[in-house]
Amino acid sequence: MILPRDFYTREDVVGIARELLGKKLCTTIGGETAYALISETEAYEGVTDKASHAYGGRRTARTEIMYRQGGTAYVYLCYGIHSLFNIVTNQSGIPHAVLIRGIIPEDNNLALEKRSGMQISEKAGTGPGNVSRLLRIHYRHTGLDLCIPEYQREDGDVIWLEDAGIVIPDKDIIVTTRVGIDYAGEDALLPYRFIWKRR
DNA sequence: CGAATGATATACT
DNA sequence: GTATATCATTCGA
Predict the structure, then answer these.
(1) What is the distance of C-alpha A95 from the center of its chain?
(2) Which end of chain A has fewer beta carbons closer than 10 Å to its terminal beta carbon, N or C?
(3) What are the tens digits of pLDDT across the range A82-121?
(4) What is the distance in angstroms measured between the alpha-carbon CA of A82 and the sugar C1' of B3?
(5) Chain B, protein-covered positions (CB within 7 A)
(6) pTM for the whole thing?
């Protein structure tokens, strides 16, 4: 039930961001496995998107990851404190990505939630910084391949996504503008943010 | 509301 | 090589 490569390599980042809602995000970090359902995403449309790190085709040591093929993890540090987890999409050479902004922890993961120092509540997975904190994702995990959930690193850490078989009707999804990107000018107005509104 | 916080990009010497 | 402005944020008043 692991999401196949061709789920990520399609051209429509915004569509992928929409479909990512309700999928299961799993990590095994430091020998401990955690997972949660994705409840909020944002699409970043690479070269044509001022909010993207790769706007205008910029290539640096950090953004190089975004030019890889879809299904690659792009994790980077923001505001000196938070690791933000993104999923690279499209073919290699096209720097599209989807930012995971929110997750819903499942009941059998409450222990892990507790261990990561979070309050146990529905809101525990809200906010991109908290997503990484809950699942113990660190910016050193950038570049991991999400389609090959086998050991790719010496420390044995892995990240992958599974299809949980959840279908979310359009009426349960809120589409809105992205946040925290005022500097992106008119691109800040694009409806690239998807929120799974639970009951 | 405002401070904390550090890697990164960019512009210098 | 070093300096400094910047940031896809969070938490606690």
Answers:
(1) 14
(2) C
(3) 999 999 999 999 999 999 999 988 765 655 555 555 555 5
(4) 16
(5) 4-10
(6) 0.92
